[in-house]
Amino acid sequence: MIKRWQKIIVGLVVVLGIIIAILYLIPSPRQDFVTTYQKVDPQTVASLREFRQKYPPKSLEVNGVKWPYLVTGQGSETILFLHGMTGAYDIWWQQILALQDRYRIVSVTYPAVDSLAGLRAGVLAILKQEGITQVNVVGTSLGGYLAQYLVAHHPTLVKRAVFGNTFPPNTLIAEKNRVLGTLLPFLPEWLVMQTFQQSGRNSIYPASGNSELVLAFLLEQTYSAMSKAQLVARYRCVIDPFVAPTPTMPVMIIEADNDPLVEEVLRTQLKATYPTARVHTLHNVGHFPYLNEPQKYTRLLEEFLKQ
Hints:
Radius of gyration: 21 Å
Helix content: 40-55%
Shape: globular
Strand order of the largest sheet: 1-2-4-3-5-6-7-8
Strand content: 15-25%
Number of helices: 14
Largest sheet: 8 strands, mixed
Order of helices and strands: HHHEEEHEHEHEHHHHHEHEHH
Oligomer: single chain
Number of strands: 8
């Protein structure tokens, strides 16, 4: 009787193993550029496509990892653009095109680096490679968090800082996402990407005023541009703690009053952390205002950088 049950248990374990293997072998869904951007304004699509063709990223290896990045523009000052968790160097393309005739611009894509110290090492190596010693840093979401980290550890590097749609060092995000954060590395890639796609459709898209551009860019990241390893690493950076700085340079906070990814308590904490910062609260634009309200966002940057 005991041997019979042992055989049944072994059989169940084998079946379970096969099921798990099948789940992990399911490929992540893919969708081409034309299909993903089919509902976006044709002029905007043409602009993004032309930008990618004209400004392909460079690559620099830092600590054994390749960092894609763009350097373009001209001017005596440099803008360093830092994207969020589901972004890339070209998510800023509308700002880059608008500002490159007056500023030198650096925009990076984060590889699968899972600490703020690792991200800092990559950014600093790129700046050194390009001979840049001071920047105006513009960061959003995770990029805004990284911008604060750069201000804390390299205050002389940063001339001005913009913290957009972001949060200060906190424990709230890690606490609220404890289960998901623990499971994330072990989930199949297709499931991880599908989860982020649903988040985009259900919360980010409506908060953006149903911006087809915002939805398309996010879907493109989860369909092909990003890997699960990058997402997991970026999440770990989001919850990587550090001591908030006391900036000596001008700081501007850009926030949205309906941001679905940065709740009000974190927006309040950010403003309390940097009480001398200039604050601009945008209305009903969601988490990606530089995408769906590019002219307004660029104008805020220009006014701040001219100070």
